[in-house]
Design brief:
The chain is of the alpha/beta class. Helix content is about 40%, strand content about 15%. The protein contains 10 helices and 8 strands. The strands form 3 sheets. A 4-stranded parallel β-sheet has the order 3-8-7-4, with helices on both faces. Strands 1-2 form a two-stranded antiparallel sheet. Strands 5-6 form a two-stranded antiparallel sheet. Helix 5 packs across helix 7. The termini are far apart.
Length: about 290
């Protein structure tokens, strides 16, 4: 009797959290779609290869990464990369629908997945801070936070071909979901071929001179740094570095769709750090991608 009573009590709540008779975005089947499942059916949600416990602390790969552990790895210009999911056959099809076939209805799904990865990164860093504080016996006194979100740019040819920059859409969406400021900081001078089939030396050489910061990137970094130091993102302070504490890093979250070899993220991160140096700002770059191949 108790079970029957609980069932009657929970049925109205279940109906509130369920959208009935709609097609699943990813498989097309008509089913009851729970809002908690990002607008897709439960079967498709359970097929997502979430990365909840990355084995590589640098690139966030689900298994050990030879690129990060080899002796000649680096120099790395970003702190770490974290991704929402492993890039398997299912995820490849989802990205193809969004990126190459222009199915914009996938964007909210991918953004929600990345939001989950960002929250996980926050918890990971905070756990590390607490551990280090306990080991040293001194409280850190500084809460880790991202100060600005930006994205990997695409070439002019790719932008004309697709009509949008998929990384920018994800970056802006993630920033809005997490209530973080967003700014375009980078430009891509030329398109490059797929990096995953090239040697490490070839990848690094191929990335030379591909990315540069926009002329206005320095001003945007300074403006956000001043807002951060003033404790308000709604008003700007006079053009001065006096209010900026250079002892603490200005953290940028760099967003892209897929992390493959890390050469793209590393090249962009190098330019972002140089832009910070030119303004007298210590920049720390974190990478967040939707998938890790």
């Amino acid at each position: 009797m108790f079970i029957d009573m609980m069932d009657r009590m929970l049925k109205p709540l279940h109906r509130m959290l369920t959208v009935s008779g709609q097609q699943c975005l990813t498989c097309g089947q008509t089913a009851s779609l729970s809002r908690g499942y990002l607008g897709i059916c439960k079967t498709c949600y359970l097929s997502i290869p979430w990365i909840t416990n990355p084995k590589c602390v640098y690139c966030g790969r689900l298994i050990g990464c030879p690129d990060c552990t080899r002796e000649d790895a680096g120099p790395w210009h970003f702190v770490c990369n974290r991704s929402a999911a492993a890039y398997n056959t299912v995820m490849r099809e989802w990205l193809a629908q969004y990126k190459y076939r222009g199915n914009e209805s996938y964007a909210p799904l991918l953004i929600r997945m990345m939001e989950r990865a960002y929250r996980q990164l926050q918890r990971e860093v905070h756990r590390r801070q607490r551990f280090l504080s306990h080991e040293s016996g001194h409280p850190s006194g500084v809460n880790w936070q991202i100060h600005l979100v930006t994205s990997v740019p695409v070439s002019t040819a790719r932008l004309q071909e697709r009509g949008f920059n998929q990384a920018e859409v994800l970056g802006r969406g993630l920033a809005a979901a997490c209530k973080l400021p967003y700014a375009d900081l980078l430009k891509r001078e030329r398109h490059t071929d797929k990096q995953s089939f090239k040697s490490r030396i070839a990848r690094l050489k191929d990335m030379e001179g591909v990315f540069h910061c926009l002329p206005e990137a320095g001003e945007r970094l300074l403006a956000q740094a001043r807002r951060t130091c003033s404790g308000s993102t709604r008003r700007a302070l006079p053009v001065s570095l006096d209010s900026i504490d250079r002892a603490y890093p200005f953290r940028i979250l760099l967003v892209d769709d897929v992390y493959t070899t890390g050469s793209t993220v590393n090249a962009c991160s190098k330019e972002l750090k140089l832009a910070g140096e030119s303004c007298g700002i210590l920049v720390e770059v974190y990478s967040l991608t939707w998938a890790r191949s």
